[in-house]
Amino acid sequence: MFFINKQYICQNFFIMAKVLGIGNALVDIMTRLKSDETLENFNLPKGSMQLVDADFSEKVNKGTDHLEKSIASGGSAANTIHGLAKMGISTGFIGKVGKDDLGIFFSEDMEKSGIHPLLQTSETPSGKAMALISPDSERTFATYLGAAVELSADDLSDELYKGYDFFHIEGYLVQNHELIERAVKLAKNNGLKVSLDMASYNVVDDNLEFLQMIVKDYVDIVFANEEEARSFTGKEPEEAIHIFGKLCEIAVVKIGKEGSLVKKGDTLFSVDSINANSVDTTGAGDLYASGFLFGLIRGLPLDICGKTGSILAGKTIEVIGPKMNEDGWVKVRNLVNELRN
């Protein structure tokens, strides 16, 4: 089996590794834009994630009241953990929410999905992300972190990591250097494999030196899209993948419709995306990570791990928001089973 020492087969059943995630516990408010003029009006760079205060968040919310909206629990790592849970993996999630309706919604959504919520609470309102979806399916986030940003190094302990084998981090947390450094040290001390999704090119730009240290010293698996890879390495994907490959055990660079590049040691795979009718790209990268990690846990070859990631990402962009309904997940699981057969 591929590098998971706690996995075995007994009477055709898998005893599988467990995945712990940490990230900003946010509620996504998905809004479909009629044009990108709305982004210009709010001075939001298309495709970026901008941190905003509560007043600006509410201004965006009210300014788009006339548009079609939906709500879902979100946050990059939470989306990845949700995808893993839907694929049958045992998961937990560390985050912080407010003592309000959004916080209750977030916690209950985790439990309904079979995720063990390891949530701290705060008097500060829960975080929310205004996800503005352009007509071409690109999404732009105006994110009020609220209680989520109050998650601190002091909230973490060895006990939280017990029983888990993988630790997945979203890049958005990297802005809290003390939190991330303690989180990865505890993970390594407790024998967990660490995976990091870089999450946004502007986060990489703002925290480059620290992020380079974290990847080199603590990260086993790194996920980056082409913009994040360019920010981190200064190179295009075909060169960036080799730089990442020298820093950690497994490197993945996602290149949109062109698929992804996966590298471990001297082995490099180019993985195709799947044909998909793109409606909203929210959560695509997060769900790619779900599929890829699922493949690793199942002991699948790296190219099949990448193809599994492509399936989850491709099916996610066919719906609004990062959450598919159960019929969608049935189709995903069937497609993944076909890969394995």
Question: Could you characterize the architecture of this molecule?
Answer:
The chain has 341 residues and is α/β, with parallel strands linked by helices. It is built from 13 helices and 16 strands. It has helices spanning 37-41, 54-63, 76-86, 101-112, 158-161, 177-189, 201-206, 208-218, 226-233, 237-247, 284-297, 302-316, 326-340, and strands at 8-10, 13-15, 19-22, 26-32, 49-51, 69-74, 91-98, 115-122, 127-133, 139-144, 166-170, 193-197, 221-225, 250-254, 260-264, 267-271. A nine-stranded mixed β-sheet has the order 8-7-3-11-12-13-14-15-16, sandwiched between helices. A five-stranded mixed β-sheet has the order 5-10-9-4-6. Strands 1-2 form a two-stranded antiparallel sheet. α3 (76-86) packs across α11 (284-297) and α12 runs antiparallel to α13. The two termini are 17 Å apart.
Global structural class: alpha/beta
Uncertain parts:
1-14
Count of helical regions: 13
Rg calc? 19 Å
Terminal residue distance: 17 Å
Molecular shape? globular
Report the mean per-residue pLDDT as an integer: 91
Query: In percent, how much strand structure appears in the residues?
Result: 15-25%
N-to-C order of helices and strands: EEEEHEHEHEHEEEHEHEHHEHHEEEHHH
Main beta-sheet strand count, sense and barrel state: 9 strands, mixed
Query: In percent, how helical is the residue content?
Result: 25-40%
Beta-strand segment tally:
16
Strand order of the main beta sheet, please? 8-7-3-11-12-13-14-15-16
